[in-house]
């Protein structure tokens, strides 16, 4: 019996999407010559413990941009990016029984871990040396279908708008982890540097938990959104917040903002850097930036526990997800707009 014959469900014939061909700056590429190229491939067959998902929506993350532009070294050639996938299960591989055919699930960045290393055993699977990622180590959601391990997928409500669910799967989850890493005390003062997809969700969680939020970002449109969502203030990225901060999160991939954010912290404050890529950090002055027990922390991926906690919290508090939709055939334009900070909230591809 062939592998395809063992699969439960219908297998369509052709997958259509976009792959990273030659990583490079997307803003300077000539029309049609950017790092993303259209691809058509045989439909992938789900293996043991995997499911085939028909994509309903896929969020466009800044990590996808880093992969396309070469800030993240490719792990394989011609990978299809995208790791905020909402879709329906259309086929299941051998032993995959967690989800029913037709059920809606979500696929996020973390795709697999070893389960046995000291990090996995300690509940810190995001630090697993053998971890693999959707849209980096395996094809992701910039396509009409994707194969995913069922153990790393999330069950999603079947009656919600898929475009508004997609950003929760990375922007939301990593923003939630960054918020927790920032050690924000209850009722504390939080500074958020950069205000895109992840930041506008993390800000709402912080506000729901009683924080005062100050947003610092270069985009006037993003500042307006921040105030609309309930931020106490919104100013330029290099401006001083109106009061000392207990915690700060740096979402913008700009190393120059690290000393700026550290200097805005009160005594014992914590800065969490949320991005997978950051430009070079300038030299820090110990007394100005780190003395008085200020902490500087990075944020690395997420655990599945983070994902489950955040998705439950998002449903409970009713997060407002601001999206800019693009048809799947305009994925290259979505990345170009993201690079230029022309996306308000989160960009989402709709097949």
Automatic annotation (TrEMBL):
The keyword Oxidoreductase applies. Its cofactor is Zn(2+). The keyword Iron does not apply. It comes from the Bacteria. Keywords: Metal-binding, Oxidoreductase, Zinc. Pfam families: ADH_N, ADH_zinc_N. CDD domains: CAD2 (cd08298). Residues 32-349 form the Enoyl reductase (ER) domain. It catalyses: a primary alcohol + NAD(+) = an aldehyde + NADH + H(+); a secondary alcohol + NAD(+) = a ketone + NADH + H(+). Its EC number is 1.1.1.1. Belongs to the zinc-containing alcohol dehydrogenase family. This is alcohol dehydrogenase.
């Amino acid at each position: 019996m062939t592998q395809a014959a063992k699969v439960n469900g219908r297998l369509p014939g052709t997958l259509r999407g976009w792959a990273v061909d030659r990583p490079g700056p997307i803003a300077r590429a000539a029309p049609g010559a950017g790092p993303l190229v259209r691809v058509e491939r045989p439909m992938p067959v789900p293996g043991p413990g995997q499911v085939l998902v028909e994509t309903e929506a896929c969020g466009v993350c800044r990590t996808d941009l880093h992969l396309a532009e070469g800030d993240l070294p490719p792990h394989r050639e011609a990978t299809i990016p995208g790791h905020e996938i909402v879709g329906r299960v259309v086929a299941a591989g051998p032993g995959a029984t967690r989800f029913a055919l037709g059920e809606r699930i979500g696929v996020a960045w973390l795709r697999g871990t070893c389960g046995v290393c000291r990090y996995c055993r300690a509940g810190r699977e995001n630090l697993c040396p053998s971890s693999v990622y959707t849209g980096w180590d395996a094809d992701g959601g910039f396509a009409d279908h994707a194969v995913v391990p069922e153990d790393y997928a999330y069950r999603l409500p079947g009656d919600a708008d898929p475009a508004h669910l997609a950003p929760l799967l990375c922007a939301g989850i990593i923003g939630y982890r960054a918020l927790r890493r920032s050690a924000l005390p209850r009722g504390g003062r939080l500074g958020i540097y950069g205000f895109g997809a992840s930041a506008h969700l993390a800000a709402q969680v912080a506000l729901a938990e009683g924080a005062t939020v100050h947003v610092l970002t270069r985009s006037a449109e993003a500042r307006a959104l921040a105030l609309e969502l309930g931020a106490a203030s919104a100013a330029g990225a290099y401006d001083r917040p109106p009061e000392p901060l207990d915690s700060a999160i740096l979402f913008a991939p700009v190393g120059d903002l690290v000393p700026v954010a550290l200097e805005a912290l009160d005594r014992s404050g914590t800065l969490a850097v949320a991005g997978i890529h950051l430009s070079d950090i300038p030299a820090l002055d110990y007394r100005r930036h780190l003395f008085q027990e200020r902490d500087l922390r990075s944020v690395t991926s997420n655990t599945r526990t983070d994902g489950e906690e955040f998705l439950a919290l998002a449903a409970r508090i009713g997060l407002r997800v601001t999206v800019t939709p693009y048809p799947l055939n305009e994925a290259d334009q979505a990345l170009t707009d993201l690079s230029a900070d022309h996306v308000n909230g989160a960009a989402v591809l709709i097949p």
